[in-house]
Amino acid sequence: MWSSLVRLFLCAAFCCVLASCDDASPKTCFDRAVLNCNMISDFASKGLLRQLESPSVKLTDAKTGANAPMKRTEVVDDKIAFVEESLAKVRKLRQTDDTKDIVQASIALHEYVLPVYRNEYQQLAKLYDGGAAKAEIDGLASAISTKYGPGVAVLFDRLTTAGKAYAAKHDIKVRWDVRTSPAN
User: Fold this and answer.
1) CB count, 10 Å around CB of 104?
2) Helices and strands (DSSP H and E) totals, the chain
3) Would you give the distance in Å from CA 138 to the centre of its chain?
4) Structure pTM?
5) CA 129-133-138 angle, 5° bins
6) Are 144 and 120 spatial neighbours (Cβ–Cβ below 8 Å)?
């Protein structure tokens, strides 16, 4: 009886350990930690401001195909959801001597941008949605860029440097000549 319970406990513990470790392939690890950050490369840049100025449309009636512009808060909510999901996936990656640099750099980048999306970018989106004066919108947008742009550039550079080394080591083909930091 006790040996059965001990075996059951050990089996359950072993399954928990396996579930908590993500032995992703080098390509998968690279994709989650480095490549997915391309979706936030517009942070503190004119690119994100363009998305807020002219948001995408969403389908409002499938039968007629009618659509309407997204609210800016929806655009920012989508960014937040992406960053949260991406961060959760990166945190699940096993940190080894091989993966530590890209995983830690990716986590640092995600943790840097997430509160800004939740706070300042949500405020900016509400200004747009509420029809605030252009000067008020421009002022907050400029403040975000000035305050967070340099920090996110450093974090992107750190991730890119680690990503290049990791990709080279694992023969992962990547075009690095594409802009990887949110300069503009």
Assistant:
1) 16
2) 7, 2
3) 24
4) 0.82
5) 90
6) yes
CB 146 within 8 A of CB 6: no
List, run by run, the mean pLDDT of 10-residue segments along the chain (184 residues): 43 40 83 95 93 90 91 96 98 96 98 98 97 97 97 97 96 77 49
What's the CA gap between 60 and 35, in Å, rounded?
Answer: 32
Dist. CA 181–CA 43, nearest whole Å = 9
Give the separation between CA 30 and CA 85, rounded to whole angstroms.
Answer: 16
Q: Rg of the Cα trace of the chain?
A: 21
What single DSSP character describes residue 48?
A: H
Angle subtended at Cα 25 by Cα 98 and Cα 79, rounded to the nearest 5 degrees: 90
DSSP secondary structure of 83-121: HHHHHHHHHHB---TTTHHHHHHHHHHHHHHHHHIIIII
Q: Tell me phi and psi for residue 146, to 5 degrees.
A: -65, -45
DSSP 171: T
What confidence score (pLDDT) does residue 19 get?
40
Q: Which residues contact 134 (CB under 8 A, 6 or more apart)?
A: none
